[in-house]
Design goal:
Number of domains: 2
Low-confidence stretches: none
CATH superfamily of the largest domain: Response regulator
Number of helices: 10
Strand order of the largest sheet: 2-1-3-4-5
Strand content: 15-25%
CATH topology of the largest domain: Rossmann fold
Number of strands: 10
Order of helices and strands: EHEHEHEHEHEHEHEHEHEH
């Protein structure tokens, strides 16, 4: 049974959509706030999510942005009662799957849910096929992702794992050093700005231990002195946040190809 998620601060509207979509054979969960919706999205990974644009504290655009961080290809329908063209364009830039004004007929909305669900199933099937091919041709290289941002870390781990790499993760510099001691990775992907032990300190500790692997650094803060210090320690690439996954993949592939150069 396909799982749907409805996020709307109007409980009556949530209940109406839950009842209507359940009759179509979907398993429907609801959330009455943006934060609750993001938490459920992370837990359930629904096939399609319906999001109200206008909600207090965390509106639909903020919810969509968080969901895109967790799953860039998730099926998302936004319901924007009274939305301006600017708000709709913003949602389109965040790659919303479909956008409707509230007040449309239930039949039209259900038809849109069916269409987005079918598209999501096709993409999931294609992704599974690509993952299977990647596993058959899985490279031997091992990658360690080090980032205190759990969402960014999870996204990178899933993205690179689907492309056949063996990926481990560490939430901070100290855990990273412990994992390197256990089994040194071929490539270390390291966030520069982390509490307690930043990326520069990790690089210095690795140099003291004669770490021979490659290193890619992520820099999300404009701290020129810290970045200059990092460059002096010889990383093979420095990329800026927010993450561009295709750029990350290109950098990983180039570093791996050139590791014997």
């Amino acid at each position: 049974m396909s799982t749907l998620l409805v996020i709307d601060d109007d409980r009556l509207h949530c209940d109406l959509l839950q009842m209507a979509l359940a009759r179509q054979g979907y398993q429907v969960s609801t959330a009455t706030s943006g934060r609750e919706g993001v938490a459920l999205f992370r837990q359930l990974r629904p096939l399609v999510t319906l999001v109200d644009l206008r909600m207090p504290e965390m509106d639909g655009l903020a919810v969509l942005k968080e969901m895109r961080t967790l799953d860039p290809r998730a099926g998302v329908i936004m319901l924007g009662g009274g939305a301006t063209e600017e708000l709709e364009n913003h949602a389109r830039k965040l790659r919303v799957t479909d956008f409707f004004r509230k007040g449309l007929s239930l039949d039209v909305l259900i038809g849109a849910v069916h269409r987005v669900a079918q598209q999501a199933r096709r993409e999931a099937s294609a992704a599974a096929s690509r993952a299977g091919e990647a596993m058959e041709q899985a490279p031997e290289e091992q990658i360690l992702v080090v980032d205190d941002d759990v969402m960014a870390r999870d996204l990178l781990v899933r993205f690179l794992s689907l492309r056949g790499y063996r990926v481990r993760e560490a939430k901070d510099g100290r855990e990273a050093l412990r994992l390197v001691e256990e089994s040194a990775p071929d490539l270390l992907i390291l966030d520069l700005a982390m509490p307690e032990m930043n990326g520069v300190e990790v690089l210095k500790a690795l140099a003291a231990r004669d770490y021979a692997g490659r290193t890619i650094i992520f820099s999300g803060h404009h701290n020129d002195s810290l970045l200059a210090e990092a460059w002096a320690l010889g990383p093979h690439e420095v990329l800026e946040k927010p993450l561009d996954l295709e750029r990350v993949l290109m950098a990983v592939q180039l570093v791996m190809v050139c590791r014997e150069c």
